[in-house]
Amino acid sequence: MKKLIIKVESGLLDQNLDQPIDAEAEKLRNKYEDKKFSRLLLMQLAFQSLGVVYGDLGTSPLYVFYNTFPDGIEDPEDLIGALSLIIYSLTLIPLLKYVLIVCRANDNGQGGTFALYSLLCRHAKVKTIPNQDLTDEQLTTYSRSTFHETSFAGKTKRWLEEHPFRKNALLVLVLVGSSMVIGDGILTPAISVLSAVQGIKLDHPSMSSDVVVLVAVVILVGLFSMQHHGVDRVSWLFAPIVLLWFLLIGGIGLFNIWKYDTGVLKAISPVYIYRYFRRGGRDSWLSLGGIMLSITGTEALFADLSHFPVPSIQIAFTTVVFPCLLFAYSGQAAYLMKNTSHVVDAFYSSIPDCIYWPVLLVATAAAVVASQATICATFSLIKQALALGCFPRVKIVHTSKRFLSHIYIPDINWILMILCVGVTAGFKNQNQIGNASGTAVVIVMLVTTLLMILVMLLIWRCHWILVLIFTGLSLVVEGTYFSSVLCKVNQGGWVPLVIALAFFIIMYVWHYGTKKRYEFEVHSKVSMAWILGLGPSLGLVRVPGIGLVYTELARGVPHIFSHFITNLPAIHSIVVFVCVKYLPVHSVPEGERFLVKQIGPVNFRMFRCAVRYGYKDLHKRDESFEKKLLEGLNTFVRLESLMDGCSDSDDYSMCDQETEQPNVLPNHSSNTMPLNMDGTVSSGDSIVSLNGHLHNNTDMVSSGFLSNVAEVNELEFLGVCRDAGVVHILGNTEVLAHRDSKLYKKIAIDYIYAFLRKICRQNSAALNVPHESLLNVGQIIHV
């Protein structure tokens, strides 16, 4: 059976969205991959990554020692042990695990929990909503490695796929990690800004703590209120601010080591970790919750990976971030060795008086940059969750014309602001906020470790010994930290758990409802036998016009269509089923976004158009969408004579290319019709150009392509329908649980899912359907 692949010049659904946005970052990544750009450019990218990736990690010295010793320092030797723990924590987690290993598991430059999940979904059938088909796997961005079924990777793949419980468990694991990232997006701005402005009180001891909290709240409200303007105009300042901050804390640390106690450098020996635990016992173990804060921001390092190649991230960390952090913590420890009573304000107390106020200003600016990066990472995660069907429909606004990742989600922004201000004003204490932040961070790290085990086995196909070493080291360190922060649940650690639980319920119930609705659509789709039995008129009056019926089905005729034609006396002369679906890829190229199929015989005039997106792409209304879709249908009719027959299994892909010269080249080696690089369509008999108009070249009409009168009539008919207008038909579906369903299912579907559907954006708004040509068809389904 022949397959036809059609490319039409540009004008896809959101052409003016995806192409210019993030083009600069995409070009830079491509240049790196091709090894064509200079070392100078790589250093420039490393410099820019400081402002986007390392702000959160860099502001940790503001509050680590206070949260480690909230009750004071009893023995100065404890500082050496704590410093040694910090040194090895920074070495094992951010440096070895994330910078050198986890960052390599990016999905075409995209990082984060959902990026790892997308990688796994491409290599194993673990996606819980199976809306993919084989044609999706032919995308150029659908990259995956191949392995033998009898290999260990093949066995791992079968183990994941053979039971639905394991697929669901993997999804739950991803949602838990994502929920904790959202919680960290609330806590990081709170603790960073509050710790930065805490320095005001050191210069004015009589100032009330409430004033400090008020200043922090004002800064936070201003930060969230400015989100809708975007950061494109001021983002060029982020990297210089963070670089200046690292140089300041590193320089101050070196000064304090030289001035107060060079003996702190012996903390490089892990022996002092053993002595620290032996001397302090349970108290030393509980202090791990504070030491854990020295590596907060590490997850943001991976989540904010999208704009920079991995080597630039590695260069920035190894040459600037890592040494400056070591100097900063060592300098504070040296100062505290002589001033143990100053642990509450360890950072600001250790600053020389002559540069106190400049450092305070830079610290506040760095805290704002760190908060901004965390907020943007939260927005990006919400967008990825929405694309994979794990979050209610929310409005997403682009704030930059150059970078795709610069987005703004109004509803989420105000929720984050309210919760962040509530945490700051409610606790008024960076110790409790630190306990909360540590709980969120360590859970995210544990989730990443578990996902990385699958990535190393299934995708990288590492030897099991290497996987065991990575797993053992990660779980020992992170599990120890996790056991410590669990003991501080009643001291603020409950906050991220409550926040994460709320977001987890929202995401899981929404995904559960979406999955049940999709399963209903699959099981109740209309059979082709029934459609064929109605005849070309479908048993109705076929009025001039084109009807675009939106459906979630990638194959088959949706149930809503039968509901429509049984309740209305007429249907449009041309019907196109439009399926907008998101795939587990970072993006779908413009030229491969549309996949067009014909349903049934030609005289039924029914088509399918699958519009495919990646989790990085945004669905935005493009005024030329209808025009380009009709151009694709027009081109299809012109090439109809090349086909032997039509059915729902025949694929027609509309892509983003057009040619200027026709060609006729025989090719008898294949019975398919792939797209050539010159924009032609090949078949088993000939290759015909997809030019936008008919050519009077008699050499290419041996099969009577231009002389087909029926084809000319079809073209005229298509023009008449186009002039009559296009109507967008959407199903306004109410989902209810069966009466005999279990209680948990009734609560999830009838209450939580129904409530989320009421408060989220309407489907027509999410699909950017013009209201002037919208037709809603209501129905009630029971799942």
Automatic annotation (TrEMBL):
Topology term for the membrane: Multi-pass membrane protein
Record InterPro entries: K+_transporter, K_trans_C, K_trans_N
Keywords: Ion transport, Membrane, Potassium, Potassium transport, Transmembrane, Transmembrane helix, Transport
GO terms assigned for molecular function: potassium ion transmembrane transporter activity
Cellular compartments annotated: Cell membrane; Membrane
GO cellular component, one term: plasma membrane
Family annotation (NCBIfam families): kup (TIGR00794)
Family under the similarity heading: Belongs to the HAK/KUP transporter (TC 2.A.72.3) family.
Protein name per UniProt: Potassium transporter
Organism: Salix koriyanagi
